[in-house]
Amino acid sequence: xxxxxxxxxxxxxxxxxxxxxxxxxxxxxxxxxxxxxxxxxxxxxxxxxxxxxxxxxxxxxxxxxxxxxxxxxxxxxxxxxxxxxxxxxxxxxxxxxxxxxxxxxxxxxxxxxxxxxxxxxxxxxxxxxxxxxxxxxxxxxxxxxxxxxxxxxxxxxxxxxxxxxxxxxxxxxxxxxxxxxxxxxxxxxxxxxxxxxxxxxxxxxxxxxxxxxxxxxxxxxxxxxxxxxxxxxxxxxxxxxxxxxxxxxxxxxxxxxxxxxxxxxxxxxxxxxxxxxxxxxxxxxxxxxxxxxxxxxxxxxxxxxxxxxxxxxxxxxxxxxxxxxxxxxxxxxxxxxxxxxxxxxxxxxxxxxxxxxxxxxxxxxxxxxxxxxxxxxxxxxxxxxxxxxxxxxxxxxxxxxxxxxxxxxxxxxxxxxxxxxxxxxxxxxxxxxxxxxxxxxxxxxxxxxxxxxxxxxxxxxxxxxxxxxxxxxxxxxxxxxxxxxxxxxxxxxxxxxxxxxxxxxxxxxxxxxxxxxxxxxxxxxxxxxxxxxxxxxxxxxxxxxxxxxxxxxxxxxxxxxxxxxxxxxxxxxxxxxxxxxxxxxxxxxxxxxxxxxxxxxxxxxxxxxxxxxxxxxxxxxxxxxxxxxxxxxxxxxxxxxxxxxxxxxxxxxxxxxxxxxxxxxxxxxxxxxxxxxxxxxxxxxxxxxxxxx
Length: 693
Hints:
Elements: H1 2-21, E1 42-45, E2 51-56, E3 62-69, H2 82-89, H3 99-108, E4 112-116, E5 119-125, H4 129-141, H5 147-164, H6 168-181, H7 193-197, H8 201-211, E6 217-223, H9 227-238, E7 261-266, E8 272-281, H10 290-300, H11 308-316, E9 323-328, E10 334-343, H12 347-363, H13 368-385, H14 389-401, H15 412-417, H16 421-431, E11 438-443, H17 445-448, E12 461-464, E13 470-471, H18 484-495, H19 498-502, E14 506-515, E15 518-527, E16 531-538, E17 541-548, E18 553-557, E19 560-563, H20 566-576, H21 584-587, E20 590-599, E21 602-610, E22 616-622, E23 628-637, E24 640-654, E25 657-667, E26 670-681
Parallel strand pairs: 2-6, 7-11, 7-12
Antiparallel strand pairs: 1-2, 3-5, 3-6, 4-5, 8-10, 8-11, 9-10, 12-13, 14-15, 14-26, 15-16, 16-17, 17-18, 18-19, 20-21, 21-22, 22-23, 23-24, 24-25, 25-26
């Protein structure tokens, strides 16, 4: 026992002695790059030209089958979107099975099957492989692209676009596509409602017949299967696929601007801006610069929390929750982007810091400890990715598609370890261009855009709509003598006239909408002066009530009640007025006509309405009809400030007064389509209805 105690004490003193000799203020030097075994893959080619890659993994009884087309992107023109729909609708029915039959058979075996414009993917347990392949080959070889399914998907897609029109990231992405790549490049095309309406079934069939050819495709098989079995099954299910000539396309290579340019996507009512500094680069997959440039980008902001953009904009300045950069390679054209989302009041300041960090990368060499930290992070990320057999399969596919050296990924860590401070400095000088970039902002034009002209060499801000289409500033197009007051006067006249509207003392509007498979019924009761009740019901059960009895307001939901006060109460008092525009002047509201802007492709007067307390909203009035077509405002929610948008259409006359029968509302990510089912004017409403509980 004493011997073991002595050894323990001796060992303890030795550990303390060694610890005293260590300098813990310095991180340990990185050791030599570990030798890694990526794993093997087999490859063979069927007689029809289909190239098959097999990655065996017998740890679990699962097999996946991924078919990938190796084709050039297609210019879709005025029918942008049909290529993606062709891929999506391959699964919507075949000559042998309906969509419902395909869904049921896939569900029965617990498999997955998805299709897209450049291939399809399926996965199942090993014992169901033949059943899955029977379905996959049928979907691949015999799609019929049903017209009724196309019509359904088009309706859904158009609705989704409407819901996204005021989303900052959606707007920014569309503007980036337009300005970075241009209208003559497939990456520069943007899906619009108009382009979706131009899509015809024949275009989907034409794309499939032209590009879905085995001699332009790879089939990657991963899982519990041998190469011998893979050959047999591939021949059985895919050898009847007919080869054919596939067109090649050559496009102009997008170039970075000669000097910085500012592109602004208008996002009415936004309290935050999406900010991106971006431009195209010449970086192909497997380029000798790829790994070194990746290290440089990681130091700037490519994934590690220690990235300079994150440390500056989040940790130091507290402008944002996240700021990152990306440097992507592509066979046609790569791209760089530094991106974040910040408040309106600091958008210009955040942009200054992004450009400062880009300049710092170009002008200053990184220190060795920072380089080692990023390399260690990338080393660990790469090692973790190897845990998935799908990673090995993707490596194999990239090696074959892009003609990379067979050991490209096996030697990745060696190449990563060899990256030096000088390499990073050289890559920054080659790929970071703080003076030749597109500065793209999606945000509140009135609050943010005036601060951005100085970031453009020619002091110009270019404006774009939600779909990345350039729009000219039209403030000079406002007719002489037209004011906000006259716009509102014309609106009241279009509704039925001020005298007619003043005669309305009571109004009941019933509406319905579908949400998560449920039908919601909403009823609003207005009684002048100053009473309002709005109920929301599901299946006849009232889920929420908002009531104002003239002086006090209350919201009740799920058994909870909340008394309204402050701005919320004042806003509800405004809403209680059936036609508040009649009383803007007496209530102390200020209105200003700022410009003419397109709404749903039609010119509309843009009027800013400011309440006495300072809250404001923006109303849009159709120039031709005078009717209100949209309202945008900022609303404080439990999740923070959100932009609330309401669009009005399908005006119908009731008792000589026009009422919008279609109202689309979006609050943050939530979108609601309300349909008016009944309107009653001056029908008699009891005051008891507005009693607070």
